[in-house]
Amino acid sequence: QENPAVKTHYDKLFERLQKSPAEQLLPFAIWELYREKHFHTYPAEPRYEEAWQYALDDSVMAKKFEGRDARWVRRGKKGREEAAVITRGSLNIHMSPEAVQELDQLIERGVVKAEYKFAQPGTIDATSRHDVVTIYFIEEPTAEGLEALSVCAKRHFRGNKLLGKKISDGFYMSEIGKIAPEDVEQLLKRDLLIKAPRLVRSLIGYLKLHGDTRWPPEISEGEFYALQEALALYGLDLAYSRDKGFTVKRIS
Fold first, then answer.
1. Shortest CA distance to 150 belongs to which of 130, 122, 170?
2. pLDDT per residue over 147-178, tens digit each?
3. The whole model's pTM is what?
């Protein structure tokens, strides 16, 4: 049953937004589109806590904790030197100790040169993200590596709602990756400023609220796709490539 207080709150918010200048709605559009691309209410994972506990207790693989409140565990091969991330992959799978062990074995045997992370039970990243596992490749994955990850994804398959290029059911690879701060700065100070200067201030406000502490921040692949769709609502076509950076065109 609908909560009358909640309905009143959102009715008032919607009324206020309707009276706002169009450019002030950009952050709301980006955030809603980002949430749609990343989150979903999945049924409770019965063995997720077992997977997390296994990852904490296991001493074979190297592990470190990341994020706010150390809510991500990142696992990789012991003794490996720090290396730059070449590309990323995503898995939409049911987490269990067996899934963790399979990923560990692929890394330990050198089938994939990578690390991977998943989130602490009970956090929104554990319960609601489509990409329950993020894989950070430090070397380009081989055909053998992609096939092995595809087998793992198929065995523990949960869904296909992921960003990037589909490799197999439950396993996608990044097509853009993180967008560097210098490219974000170019977007704000040149490309978007020329085409839609009134939107720049709203985008800066969004990035300062949702980005990292650096300025200018990086933009994730999910944020790029959300921004791309949000700007289309304003009649702008946003594109990005690593060679050329951003381009912004009016939709004819």
1. 170
2. 999 999 999 999 999 999 999 999 999 999 88
3. 0.84
